[in-house]
Each structure stands twice: as C-alpha cells, then as structure tokens.
Amino acid sequence: MKAVLGADHAGCVLKNAAKQYLIQKQIEVLDLGTDSDKEPVDYPDIGIKAAKMVANGECDRGILSCGTGIGMSIAANKVRGAYAALCTNTYMAKMSRLHNNANILVLGGRVMNIDEALQIIDVWLETPFKGGRHARRIEKIKAYEDKVFLSNINNSNGRVVIIDHPLVQHKLGIIRNAQTSVKEFRELVEEIAGLMVYEITRHLPVEKIEVETPLAKAHAKTIAGKKLAVIPLLRAGLGMIQGILKLIPNAKVGHIGVYRDAVTLQPVEYYCKLPGDIEERDIFIVDPMLATGGSSTLAIDLIKRRGGKKITLVCLLAAPEGLKRVQDTHPDVDIYMAALDDHLDEHGYIVPGLGDAGDRLFGTK
Ligand code: RB5
From the alpha carbon of 8, which atom of ligand 1 is closest? Predict the structure, then answer.
C-alpha cells in the first residue's frame, strides 16, 4: 500500500507522527508537506494535490490533517474520485471504511492528541469496505460525479451519453473481471454492443407510413433514409460488429486500422476502407476502449476527410482524458459509452478498465 500524506501548519505535527507510524508499519509513504507548524500555508493547495493522487491511482490511500480537519475534507472532496472522511474517533473511522469506502482519512491536529490519531489511523487502515447496499449508494455519488464532469467538459454540440441500463452494466461487470474466459468475453462484448444499438440509434429520423395489417390500415413509422455505416477500429472494434449488425443488418461496414508509432507515440493510419457513399451515411465508429483518444481522433479525421459528416463514436469504456481529447478536436461528434472510468495509467491503459480489449477478445496474451 502507498499512502500520500499532507497537512497544513496546524496539522503538521500530527502528519509527522502519522508518517513515522506508517513507516514502522512498512507502508510506503509520500509526504506532500508542510513541515513547519510556524509558517502558515493554505490547506487547499496540499489537500487537492493529495486527493488527485488518490483519485488517479498514484496512491492507494490519503491521510490529511489541518487544525480541525474540516478545511482539508472540504478541499479533498472537490476532487472527482476522492472520498475524504473527517473522523474524530475510531467508530467514525471504522464506519467511513465499512459503509463509505473512504479513500482519504482526514484528522484535526487541534482537536485530538497523537495517540487518538494513531488509533484512528489503525482502525481506518484495517477496516474493509462492506459493499452490498453501501456500494449502491456510492455508485449514486459516482454517477453524480460523472454527470457533473460531463457537463463541465461538454462544450460541444455532440451528445455524450453513458448507457447505464442495468443489463449493459451487468454484462460490463462480467467482462471487467480478469477471470472471464475469452469465449465469454467475446460473446458479452457482442451482446453489450447489441444492447447499445437501442440508444445509439435513438435519434435516427423516422417517417410515417401506412401498412395493411390483417385487419385494417395502420399508421406506422419507418426509419427515414436508412443509410448507416458501422466502422470498427481494428482490431478490438471487430468484437462489437456482429452485435450491432444483428440489429441494423443493412448497414455498410468500413474498417480503419491505426497503430501507435513507437518513437513519436502518435497514431498512424495503416488501413482505411470506407463505403463509397460515406458522405450520405450516418456513421458509427466502434472501438471498445476510448483511452488516450489518439486512434479515435485520427479515425474521425480520416472519415471527415472522405466526406463523412454525421459521426457517432461508440465505445464500452472511456477515460476522461480520451473523452476530452475527442471532444476538443471533434466537438460535433456524438459519443456513447457504457462507462466513464477513472483515468489512464502510465501505459495508456484505462483504469480500472478491463485490460487490453483486443487481447481479451482474441486470446492473444
Ligand atoms: C488554520 O488556522 C486552520 O484554519 C486550518 O488548519 C483548518 O482547521 C481549516 O479547516
């Protein structure tokens, strides 16, 4: 376990004691300061920095302190993915883990002595999250965070939609599991893609028609135009194709292949074959993982250069970084996903994610 510690001047003595204690317990510690109880500093500077490190996975837990603990908790809880609990006794510490799954403990250097603080830390570190109904409540907080996050970055005309249908979420949970077999993974990716069709086609224009039922004439609707194209990004996008085509079997299929240059780390096109009349079609680019956004952005470029206009990007998981990149570059594109994950790791993998979708689909690792 790696813990980040931070304090202002009023919490610094407590922080230093906590640091020694954690080191004794063989816990790796990252100390963001401050180291003087005389020189005043502003708690938000340290609290927000520490909270970001916990939220993005650089550290597993955080322990923050200021005079009362109040300022630090307010500051840390502004960070998406940081769940900071101000605890003044061991019962609160226990419950903040059991029920709230708090990833940051906040203590007040002026409202408790060092012994009390160390006992609180002990309980907090040792207590697991209970899950069950408490997980549901935390999911509600996360869903609200996602909503706020999306409305803040969404400066585009395009829609950004998280498909939170229970069936999609249930199946997504299974494919996230590292133990899920290649066979099951492949089947589920196809099924999720199929379920997503319901949402991604919601805005297709329809026109009124009349049909003869066995009994009488009826007014009905048909999809106007019907010119659709589905374009998987090679290779993982292939896993979503059959699920989509089952529901929109007349769609034409294009393919785009992009690799990442080992030196420049930039995406480079190696294959692009699109339906000839791409400019007339509603286009769905499919790629299970919107990670850095490099491949998707290039794919959208390629399609636009060939005349494509109405473009939707469909993925299973997105990282905030990739979502922002696509939105900044192509604000007109609609983006649909089954979940918005926390962040990218140093290798560009989505965390928590599901690993490498291509490898898991094709069993290549
Ligand atoms: C600093 O005097 C004090 O305001 C701060 O440490 C903290 O208690 C704020 O909530």
Answer: 6
